[in-house]
Design a protein that fits this description.
The protein is of the alpha+beta class. It has one domain: Nucleotidyltransferase, domain 5, CATH 3.30.420.10. Helix content is 40%, strand content 15%. The chain is built from five helices and four strands; from the N terminus they run E-E-E-H-E-H-H-H-H. The protein has a four-stranded mixed β-sheet. Strand 2 and strand 3 form a beta hairpin. Helix 1 runs parallel beside helix 2, helix 3 crosses helix 5 and helix 4 crosses helix 5. The longest helix is centred in the first third of the chain and has 19 residues.
Length: 188
Amino acid sequence: MSSSKLIRVLAFDTSMTCPGVAIIEVRNRKPTIKALSHVKPNPNPNRSHAHRAEVIEGWAMMFLDKNCPRDGFDYVVREDFAGKTSISNYPVLSAWNACERAASRFGLTFDKFRKPGKRTPDLGIPATTVKSMVAGSGKAEKDELQAAVRRMTGYKGEFANFDESDAAAIGLAWVIHEGLIDKPKEGE
């Protein structure tokens, strides 16, 4: 692959409370943030998960309608999730489904993450892998991850919240994993 080829990554940090999305572009091994967004579905206890998932789907469709290039994205990615109970699984998987339905309307499908040496792929990249690749520690705090995203991309704008910077970190971890950019060195 030519190093000057433009690579586009659509990355979702998916949750029911405040999903975030980022578009990362890579040219000459240099990543930049091109677009960010998030949505906070009304947490009113009278609103069902189904209602909130529809809000997320609408937000994702509006974001893609405004930002999806004609030739799509090279990678469409999300963070993996492995909850232990239906109480934690259902909201996240509902939000995943909402984002996936929106993406499918634009002809997009989510890429699967394959850990080196693992036979079967995961549906997304693990959170600890994202933190380790981008911030240097699988236990990095949100502010440390956000600072690492800024260093790697040179982003000077505002992140509305950690969900936007987390989405950018997911995209960055993916392109590191794919060998399209270098993993930051210690202290960078």
